[in-house]
Design goal:
Strand order of the largest sheet of chain B: 1-2-3-4
Structural class of chain A: alpha+beta
Shape of chain B: globular
CATH architecture of chain B: Roll
Shape of chain A: globular
Protein name (chain B): Ubiquitin-conjugating enzyme E2 2
Number of helices of chain A: 21
Strand content of chain B: 15-25%
Radius of gyration of chain B: 19 Å
Helix content of chain B: 25-40%
CATH superfamily of the largest domain in chain A: Peptidase C65 Otubain, subdomain 2
Strand order of the largest sheet of chain A: 1-2-6-5-3-4
EC number (chain B): 2.3.2.23
CATH class of chain B: Alpha Beta
Oligomer: heterodimer
InterPro entries (chain B): Ub_conjugating_enzyme, UBC, UBQ-conjugating_AS, UBQ-conjugating_enzyme/RWD
Number of domains of chain A: 2
Number of strands of chain B: 4
Structural class of chain B: alpha+beta
Pfam families (chain B): UQ_con
Enzyme class (chain B): transferase
Order of helices and strands of chain B: HHEEEEHHHH
CATH architecture of the largest domain in chain A: Up-down Bundle
Distance between the termini of chain A: 70 Å
Strand content of chain A: 5-15%
Chain lengths: ~450, ~180
């Protein structure tokens, strides 16, 4: 534990440490529920630990991109599940479901009564839970809202970092779990190693700050998560041999989403896969855009106008708009026409590879997009990488088209277009390798220039 | 907690101040205690009562009447309740102010009762604690006594036990109990 790396201590020190150990209470500082962090932080944290931990934590970020720490005050497992439950509701984004949850949880009053929890004992705690559920339902944006779940996530985060709110919620979940166990004795007593369920609940479920155990997790899953359609997945990060964490899963019958916790002996945190964290993409254009490009191989002014709102498409590797093509780049990339001596098969192969293959680092953007001569196929013009730039980083060997000087100089532009202002093909764009900040010069303002690299969109 | 890293004895020693000392938390304690007081007065359970001292809602004096059929029958015991600002998530500190001879209560009035220690839960309240203490008077837990002699006598010599109870008992005033 904490004293393991100390030099051999004297007897006095030992006594002192023993005293500290006896009086030690789990650290109670830090937020009750922390901010989202990349799970590589866990790997870093364990970088100097036991080899088993190193291996397991190295494997962790491949599967789970982020995590959220919970305060280790004995309520962490309860808090982690409760918080993740609210987050799952927020992610699900269905107001009606949240209201349905209030109704469903209220219907448990019969098992609370049966287990000997009169409503006057529970109502204050229950009200904290219902209240937050109702607030969550209000904060969930309507389904077509483009900015999903930001407010509601902040609301839940704030509520769980409020001492009395989260204490009430956790207490009610403890009561509910206890009542569930007490009313399903046959299901749980085999796992209590001879302990009476009432003793067990009084000892391990009801006391605030008593860590959740497997029986408690199972019962809480049954009562809270399973009927809501949330599966539960708990990787155990412990010292058992193996390269990966052991996984414990509890499956809902009709799962809507999955809640993930990270267990380390004595502690629970919340884990996220990348899809749990990312905002859903509400940009149908990004899907239709490639089709749009492909179906209009010839540039027209209409397309320029139509595409103005789609600047962000440039952030998607391998996607470009017709409007991005600068006049001279047509010259560079223009295929030497069907009379080319190169076999057509090669052109075909060129036409298929770029989209998924280019990770498109900023430095790799280079002007010449490739135009497929076989227009009848309707394939999009796709940018190929860096015919002129030497900083080629992709996995492909150089193409003959890039090396042949006669090809590179190419035929003159057949038509002109203006540089899309926000395009990285514009040298005034910060992603352009030849980036030059645009400067207003009063002299240049009135000079007509053909220096197309400095032209502004729409002139 | 082997998940805590970079801990050294110095930082371990610095106990963080209680996290629940915010004004809102205190307001919640007050609200909770007011409602407990209300329900205690409404329910008027026989044999137990409790009331705040001098308007200080965080310190109460309670009374238990010894149950019939026990060595404490007819005796009135006073207790003090001190509620932490984290109540009901942490247990109140409960002491017998009336001198009492009991296997699970020491001569300072400290009580060995699991629900006041590690089994405390927010579902308990003043009333349930008093009822538990009342039943503890008739059913001591002799397996873990604070007063070993009393535990022995309870089983071996009930008459002698009763003598000790009566010898130790002394009625006290509310003022004494409130200190």
């Amino acid at each position: 534990m904490t004293t393991g790396y100390a030099p051999p201590p004297s007897e006095e020190e030992l006594a002192y440490l023993q005293k500290l150990s006896n009086e030690y209470e789990p650290e109670v500082t830090g937020p009750l529920v922390g901010e989202l962090q990349p799970s590589t932080n866990i790997t870093t944290e364990y970088a100097r630990a036991d080899p088993v931990y190193i291996k397991k934590t190295e494997a962790l970020p491949h599967k789970y991109s982020n995590y959220r720490a919970c305060r280790g005050d004995g309520n962490c497992g309860w808090r982690a599940i409760a918080f993740a439950y609210f987050e799952a509701l927020a992610r699900n984004g269905d107001k009606t479901k949240v209201h349905a949850e209030v109704t469903r949880l209220k219907s448990f009053q019969n098992i609370l009564d049966a287990a000997g929890f009169p409503s006057e004992v529970c109502e204050d705690f229950a009200e904290e839970l219902y209240d937050l559920l109702r607030k969550t339902a209000v904060a969930i944006p309507p389904p077509d809202n483009g900015n999903p779940a930001t407010d509601v996530k902040a609301l839940v985060f704030e509520a769980f970092n409020d001492e009395s709110t989260q204490a009430g919620i956790i207490t009610f979940l403890r009561i509910l779990t206890s009542a569930w166990i007490k009313t399903h004795i046959d299901n749980y007593s085999p796992f209590l190693m001879g302990e009476d369920v009432f003793t067990y609940c009084g000892r391990a479920i009801e006391p605030f700050r008593h860590e959740i155990e497997n029986v408690g997790i199972n019962a809480l899953f049954e009562v809270l998560l399973k009927p809501a359609g949330f599966s539960l997945e708990i990787p155990y990060l412990d010292r058992t041999p193996g390269d990966e964490v052991n996984m414990y899963t509890f499956n809902a019958e009709y799962p809507i989403t999955t809640i993930r916790l990270l267990y380390r002996p004595g502690h629970y945190d919340i884990l996220y896969k990348i899809e749990d964290v990312q905002q859903p993409v509400h940009t149908p254009h990004s899907i239709s855009a490639p089709v749009y490009i492909g179906s209009f191989p010839h540039h027209t002014q209409d397309h320029t106008n139509g595409a103005r709102g789609l600047d962000y498409l440039h952030m998607i590797p391998g996607v470009t708009l017709v409007d991005d093509i600068s006049p001279y780049s047509y010259g560079d990339s223009g295929f030497p026409s069907p009379i080319s001596t190169h076999p057509p098969a090669m052109q075909q192969s060129l036409s298929v590879h770029p989209i998924p293959a280019h990770p498109a680092p900023a430095s790799a953007y280079a002007p010449p997009p490739l135009q497929i001569p076989t227009h009848s196929l309707g394939v999009a013009r796709l940018p190929i990488q860096a015919s002129q730039s030497q900083a080629r980083t992709g996995p492909f060997r150089p193409s003959i088209w890039e090396l042949e000087p006669s090809v590179a100089s190419g035929p003159p532009p057949q038509f002109t277009t203006s540089i899309f202002r926000n395009s990285h093909y514009n040298t005034a764009h910060f992603l352009n390798p030849d980036f030059e900040p645009e400067q207003w010069s009063p002299d240049a303002e009135y000079v007509t220039s053909n220096n197309s690299g400095r032209r502004r969109n729409g002139h | 907690m082997n998940i805590l890293h970079g801990q050294n004895p110095a930082t371990m020693n610095e106990k963080a101040s209680s996290p629940m000392t915010t004004a809102s938390q205190n307001a919640n304690v007050t609200k909770r205690l007011q409602s407990e007081l209300m329900s205690l007065m409404m329910a008027s359970t026989p044999g137990i009562s409790a009331f705040p001292n001098d308007g200080n809602l965080l310190n109460w004096t309670a009374t238990i009447v010894g149950p019939e059929g026990t060595p404490y029958a007819g005796l009135t015991m006073k207790l003090s309740f001190a509620f932490p600002s984290t109540y009901p998530y942490t247990a109140p500190t409960v002491l017998f102010k009336t001198p009492i001879y009991h296997p699970n209560i020491d001569f300072s009035g400290r009580i060995c009762l699991d629900i006041l220690k590690d089994k405390w839960s927010a579902i308990y309240n003043v009333q349930s604690v008093l009822l538990s203490l009342q039943s503890l008077l008739g059913e001591p837990n002799n397996a873990s006594p604070l007063n070993g002699q009393a535990a022995e006598l309870w089983d071996k010599d009930p008459a002698e036990f009763k003598k000790h109870v009566l010898a130790r008992h002394r009625d006290i005033t509310d003022d004494e109990a409130g200190q």
